[in-house]
């Protein structure tokens, strides 16, 4: 069902032969293109000189703060676990599909849970950052450090989770984006199915989506519509948006407000500009 690696993923065998750029909120359309086409070393260096806000991808940083060791005593799904101190942890920087999803998404979600169970259940881990903040549901927000790598690295590398930036919990987004591109190129996990990114016409319910579409209408510098189906709300103005530009976008989609729903049924409020990338 899923393409498997010839060798297990570790930090030592991860490829960083081609420098990449991590998008920042001020990055130009040209840099967007370079990020998605895995530019040559020469071109990347040139763009870095012209656009000083561009940051080269590097291996995921080691944690600055670590919790005491906790035992993972329950795997809820691919991105949520429980620890033996009664804490529930929502892992950040990536998202796996929901177990209740149908079709290939549900199968991917079950495979992600199976892998996390195999890797972590009953094992001792550190949580970072520490102390960890909590969300409105009382879940701790952070990453699990497994003596040399993060759980997110393993899931994204296997094509079982998608990178997503939700500031301020976005420390790993740059390195996870690099790992995601390796998995995408290699056809790992759900990347082997040819289902991602989804077309706007496939939008049919609330939840996390990674889709692609063309700008059909500009509402204002902070919002536009893709394929007449999805209103995208940006965290800051972008004067470079033009009708006809194609974007890949990722995040949590919800029904549009009633006054707009008949014309544009879905809305995506982007948490970070790096969750929207121009494609050609």
In short:
The chain is α+β, with helices and mostly antiparallel strands and 280 residues long. It is built from six helices and 16 strands.
What does this structure look like?
The structure is a single chain. This protein is α+β, with helices and mostly antiparallel strands. It has three domains: 36 residues, no CATH class; 123 residues, Beta Barrel (OB fold (Dihydrolipoamide Acetyltransferase, E2P)); 82 residues, OB fold (Dihydrolipoamide Acetyltransferase, E2P) (Beta Barrel), CATH 2.40.50.200. The longest helix has 18 residues. The protein is globular. The strands form four sheets. A five-stranded mixed beta barrel has the order 3-4-5-8-7. It has a five-stranded mixed beta barrel with strand order 11-12-13-15-14. A two-stranded antiparallel ribbon has the order 1-2. A hairpin with a 3-residue loop joins strand 12 and strand 13. Helix 4 packs parallel to helix 5. The protein is 22% helix and 28% strand. It has six helices and 16 strands.
Topology:
Layout: E1 21-22, H1 29-37, H2 41-50, E2 55-56, E3 70-77, E4 80-83, E5 88-91, E6 94-95, H3 103-120, E7 124-128, E8 140-145, H4 151-157, E9 162-163, H5 173-186, E10 198-199, E11 207-220, E12 223-226, E13 230-233, E14 246-255, H6 258-261, E15 266-269, E16 276-279
Parallel strand pairs: 5-8, 10-11, 13-15
Antiparallel strand pairs: 1-2, 3-4, 3-7, 4-5, 6-9, 7-8, 11-12, 11-14, 12-13, 14-15, 14-16
């Amino acid at each position: 069902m899923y393409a498997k690696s010839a060798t297990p993923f570790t930090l030592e065998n991860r490829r960083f032969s081609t420098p990449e750029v991590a998008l920042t909120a001020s990055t130009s359309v040209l840099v967007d293109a370079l990020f998605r086409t895995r530019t040559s070393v020469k071109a990347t260096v040139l763009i870095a000189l012209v656009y000083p806000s561009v940051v080269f991808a590097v291996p995921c940083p080691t944690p600055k703060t670590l919790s005491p060791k906790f035992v993972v005593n329950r795997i809820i799904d691919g991105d949520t676990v429980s620890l033996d101190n009664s804490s529930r942890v929502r892992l950040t920087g990536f998202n796996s599909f929901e177990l209740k999803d149908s079709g290939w998404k549900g199968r991917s979600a079950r495979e992600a849970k199976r892998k996390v169970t195999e890797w972590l259940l009953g094992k001792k881990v550190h949580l970072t950052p520490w102390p960890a903040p909590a969300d409105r549901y009382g879940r701790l927000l952070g990453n699990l450090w497994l003596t040399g790598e993060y759980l997110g690295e393993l899931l994204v590398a296997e094509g079982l989770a998608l990178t997503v930036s939700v500031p301020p919990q976005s420390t790993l987004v740059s390195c996870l984006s690099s790992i995601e591109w390796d998995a995408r190129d290699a056809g790992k996990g759900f990347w082997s199915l040819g289902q991602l990114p989804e077309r706007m016409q496939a939008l049919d319910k609330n939840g996390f989506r990674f889709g692609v579409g063309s700008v059909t209408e500009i509402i204002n510098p902070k919002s536009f519509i893709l394929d007449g189906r999805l209103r995208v709300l940006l965290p800051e103005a972008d004067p470079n948006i033009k009708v006809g530009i194609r974007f890949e976008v990722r995040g949590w989609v919800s029904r549009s407000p009633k006054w707009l729903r008949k014309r544009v049924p879905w809305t995506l409020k982007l948490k970070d500009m790096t969750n929207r990338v121009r494609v050609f």
